[in-house]
C-alpha cells in the first residue's frame, strides 16, 4: 500500500503518497515497476519521450455509466456545494492533486468538462472564465501544464446533427463562437496543442444530407480557426482526432488517410497533424501502429490518446492499455518518426464500471504508464539493433539502384519498363516476405532478458 500521508481538510486523496518508481521486483501495487521519469532512453528521459497527460473528462467527470445503465462512481467532491461553479473548482483541486501524486506533467480538457454550461453562451463563458482563472493558479502552483484543450461540440442537443456540419447556420455560428472561446482559454493556459474531434460531424442517412455542402462547412470552420490562431498569436499545434463511427454512423473523420485527403482537398494540410486514439484505430478496422505509420509518413503525427478497446465489443470502450506487445509496435513507429514533438500520451481512458474506489484511479494510470515505459525501452532497443529495419531495407533494395531507382526518381516510363521486361528481365522471381520468421523474432525480442 501507499505510505500514509497526513490528512488535510483540502486533501482529496488522503492516504496516497506520490507514486514512486520501485522497479520490476517491487510488490507494491501503488508503485511504478517500469516508468522511471528520469531514466534516459536514447539521450532523453522517459518523461521527455512520453509526456503523459490525464484526460479530465474520464478521470474527473466519468461516472461509470455505460449504454445500459447510470453511473456507479461517486466522488465526495461532487457534493461539496450546491453551486456548480464552486463544485467545479473543488473538482479541479482534486484533479491537480491527482496529477501531482501520479506524476503526470500534463492534463487535457474539453470546455464543458471543467465548467458548467449555462443557459446562454455568455453565462457558459462566464463560468469557464472563473474556472480558467482557478486552473491558471493551480498550474502555477504545481508545474502541471496543459497539453491541449478543445470544445465539446457533441453533447448538447443543439449539436445532435453536427456542429460545423449542421444543416442550420445558427448552430454553425454557435459552434464557431464556442471554438473561439475554447481557443482563447487554451491560449491563456499555455496549451501546447488544440484538438478538433468531430463527435457528430457526419450523417446518418443521405436521404436528408448534402454531403458536399457539409464537408465544405467543416473546412470553413477549420479555416476560421487557422485565421483566428494567427490573430491571437496562438503558436500551438492544431490536431485532428479521427474516429470512424459512434455516435454518428458515417463520420467525415473516419481515419488518418480519410482526413489527409480531406485536408489536402481544402488546402489545410499544412496546419494540422493528428491526435491518434488506439480505440478509434481499431474501430476503423486498423491497428494502432497502422494509423501512426499513415500519419507519420505524411509528416502529420502529432499526439496520442492512450487507450484501447475491447475486441469483443463494438463500441468505444476507452480502456487503459496494458498490451505491451501492441504498444511496442506503436512505439517502434513513433520513435522511427522522431517522436511526438509538442504532443504526448494522453490517457483518454476510463475506469471500468465496477471500479469505484479512489485507489482504482491510481492503479489504472500506473498500469498504463508502466506499459508505455516498457514499450518505449523495448522499441528503442529493437530499433537500435536494427534487425527489422535491416530486413525491410533488404526487401526494397531493388529500388536503390538501376531501373528500380529510375522508377522512384521518375526517369522510367511505361515504354522503357516494357522494353526492359521483354528483352532482359523476363519473369520476376518470387521472394518470401518471411512474416512468420519476423513475428517469431518479435516475440523473442519482447521476452528477451536484458
What brief labels describe this structure?
8-stranded parallel barrel, alpha/beta, two-stranded antiparallel ribbon
What does this structure look like?
- With 450 residues, the protein is an alpha/beta fold.
- Helix content is 45%, strand content 10%.
- It has 16 helices and twelve strands.
- The protein has helices at 46-50, 56-59, 84-102, 111-114, 121-142, 169-188, 211-232, 256-265, 278-283, 288-297, 324-336, 358-385, 387-395, 402-409, 414-425, 435-446, and strands at residues 40-41, 44-45, 52-55, 106-110, 145-150, 193-196, 202-203, 237-240, 250-251, 272-277, 301-305, 345-347.
- The strands form three sheets. It has an eight-stranded parallel beta barrel, surrounded by four helices. A two-stranded antiparallel sheet has the order 1-2. Strands 7-9 form a two-stranded antiparallel sheet.
- Helix 10 (288-297) packs parallel to helix 11 (324-336).
- The longest helix is centred in the last third of the chain and has 28 residues, at 358-385.
- It is globular.
- The two termini are 29 Å apart.
Draw up the topology in text.
Layout (H helix, E strand, L loop, with lengths): L39 E2 L2 E2 H5 L1 E4 H4 L24 H19 L3 E5 H4 L6 H22 L2 E6 L18 H20 L4 E4 L5 E2 L7 H22 L4 E4 L9 E2 L4 H10 L6 E6 H6 L4 H10 L3 E5 L18 H13 L8 E3 L10 H28 L1 H9 L6 H8 L4 H12 L9 H12 L4
Parallel strand pairs: 3-4, 3-12, 4-5, 5-6, 6-8, 8-10, 10-11, 11-12
Antiparallel strand pairs: 1-2, 7-9
Helix pairs in contact: 3-5, 5-6, 6-7, 10-11, 11-12
